[in-house]
Amino acid sequence: MCADRMAMTDLLKAEEIKKALDAFAAETFNPKKFFDLVGMTAMSAEDVRKVFQVLDVDGSGFIEEEELKFVLKGFSEEGRDLTDAETSAFLKAADKDGDGKIGIDEFEAMVHE
User: Fold this and answer.
1) pTM (2 decimals)?
2) Whole-angstrom Cα distance, residue 60 to residue 52?
3) E-strand spans in the chain?
4) Over the stretch 15-60, which tens digit does the pLDDT of each residue have?
5) SS3 for 52?
6) Pairwise CA distance, residues 48 & 51, whole Å
7) Fewer CB within a 10 Å sphere, N or C end of the chain?
């Protein structure tokens, strides 16, 4: 990846990331609740798209199922992996066009829904 790639802490407060990750350490992951806790629901569409670009590890323009499993690590190295059930539920909730991956518009829509 390019060296000028943004870090998640350039977009979100480290303490809010930690609080949101801690909330789901032992609880089933809920993406909408997580986005709210981490402060993303209050962000502009443009900034949410920047978060998406950080999470789109391979730069494909989509967050595929393989990337989604590790989405919390995109917020912090301390983030846990999502379970297969959590990954499937997240994908199902966000993938409005049914192509098996989350596009930038789908991601932004889910955050602000």
Assistant:
1) 0.91
2) 11
3) 62-64, 101-103
4) 999 999 999 998 999 999 999 999 999 999 999 999 999 999 999 9
5) helix
6) 5
7) N
The rounded distance, in Å, linking the Cα atoms of 40 and 31 is: 11
Q: Are 104 and 113 in contact (CB under 8 A)?
A: no
Closest CA to 50 of 96, 104, 2: 104
End-to-end CA distance of the chain: 31
Both structure tokens of 15: 């303490």
Are residues 20 and 34 in contact, defined by beta-carbon separation less than 8 angstroms?
yes
Closest CA relative to residue 61, chosen from 49, 46, 73: 49
Q: How many CB atoms lie within 10 A of CB 17?
A: 22
- How far is CA 40 from its chain centroid? 10
Side-chain-side CA neighbours of residue 62 (13 Å): 14
Tokens of 57: 């590890």
Q: Which pLDDT score, from 0 to 100, does residue 1 have?
A: 42
